[in-house]
Amino acid sequence: MCVSCDSCLKGNFRGKRYKCLICYDYDLCSVCYEAGSTTTRHTTEHPMQCILTRSDYDLYYGGEAMTGDQPQSFTCPFCGRLGFTEATLHDHVTSEHSDLSYEVVCPICAAIPIGEPNLVTDDFAGHLAMEHRNPSRDLMSFLISFHTLQQNITGLV
Ligand SMILES: [Zn+2]
Ligand SMILES: [Zn+2]
Ligand SMILES: [Zn+2]
Ligand SMILES: [Zn+2]
């Protein structure tokens, strides 16, 4: 399914896409985003998640393994701050916005190619904890501790 711009109605555009984290299923192309397009419900105050289109994604990753230098960063749907990772967004939301519980669109689900692009939740911190606690990082820390343990054992022998 291709996404079209909700302002100029251009379909399947190249380049960056911006998705509103407050309005359900509201996407803009970068031209309309920069022009500050609004509707009766959408205002420029709404935080928007910048999403790389599929072709950009392939361009960045080129089929190679992901590195630490990931081009995708996440926007806080409550205050619009940019540049979070899955882990730092969770920390931020639990420490800064634990009192907020209105419905927002999950920026992580919206940005990942296999995600549900319009996942709306009124328990965003809970959703982050359930779905985005980065299991690969936990695996890494497990492997590191296991490796250290092995080294310690070898050192003792
Ligand atoms: Zn547009
Ligand atoms: Zn909006
Ligand atoms: Zn925030
Ligand atoms: Zn999500």
Automatic annotation (TrEMBL):
It catalyses: S-ubiquitinyl-[E2 ubiquitin-conjugating enzyme]-L-cysteine + [acceptor protein]-L-lysine = [E2 ubiquitin-conjugating enzyme]-L-cysteine + N(6)-ubiquitinyl-[acceptor protein]-L-lysine. One of its GO terms (biological process) is regulation of cell communication. GO terms for cellular component: plasma membrane; synapse. One of its GO terms (molecular function) is ubiquitin protein ligase activity. Residues 1-56 form the ZZ-type domain. It is an enzyme of class 2 (transferase). This is RING-type E3 ubiquitin transferase. It comes from Nesidiocoris tenuis. Belongs to the KCMF1 family. Its EC number is 2.3.2.27. Keywords: Metal-binding, Transferase, Zinc, Zinc-finger. CDD domains: ZZ_PCMF_like (cd02338). The keyword Cytoplasm does not apply. Pfam families: zf-Di19 (PF05605), ZZ (PF00569). Gene3D superfamilies: 3.30.60.90. InterPro entries: Di19_Zn-bd, KCMF1/Dystrophin, Znf_ZZ, Znf_ZZ_sf.
